[in-house]
Design brief:
Elements: H1 5-11, H2 16-46, E1 49-54, E2 57-59, E3 62-63, E4 66-75, E5 78-87, E6 94-101, E7 106-112, E8 117-125, E9 129-136
Antiparallel strand pairs: 1-9, 2-4, 3-4, 4-5, 5-8, 6-7, 6-9
């Protein structure tokens, strides 16, 4: 028989141009779906974990390359942020925690080297809330 796909469709009343357009549309749709899934996956891998909280609260997030646990508490007009962060990968990156209070005071805590854990205790006078961001950089 030796007919190609193009010849087969041409024999059934289709033209090569229509077949190519249909194939291109399917490929484009598949590329869009795969591209979107890949981009979403990459965003999930690189997105930091953040919490904006007021007293009392606690959080125990994990992001690729870092994990941590902290508690926010208030006493006598001061905000305390206590906990730890840990670098979980041997990837030449560090675990980083950024604390920014409602009034703009900020601190950064880092832990570098796989399985390195750093404990912290920060006290902010006249504050009752903070944004806390865990990431690997």
């Amino acid at each position: 028989m030796g007919t190609s796909v193009e010849e087969h469709f041409r024999c059934n009343g289709f033209t090569k141009g229509i077949v190519e357009v249909k194939v291109r549309k399917k490929r484009a749709a598949l590329s869009l779906v795969l591209g979107t899934a890949l981009a979403s996956g990459l965003l999930m891998v690189t997105a930091p974990a953040a919490s904006a909280a007021s007293c009392p609260s606690s959080w125990e997030p994990t992001v690729p390359g870092a994990k941590g646990k902290w508690t926010l508490s208030c006493k006598n007009g001061a905000l305390s942020v206590n906990g730890w962060i840990e670098d979980t990968r041997a990837d030449a990156r560090c675990a980083r925690l950024q604390i920014k209070t409602a009034k703009g005071t900020s601190d950064t805590i880092t832990a570098c080297g796989k399985n390195t854990r750093k404990n912290f205790q920060k006290v902010y006078q006249n504050e009752s809330s903070a944004s806390v961001l865990l990431s690997a950089y």
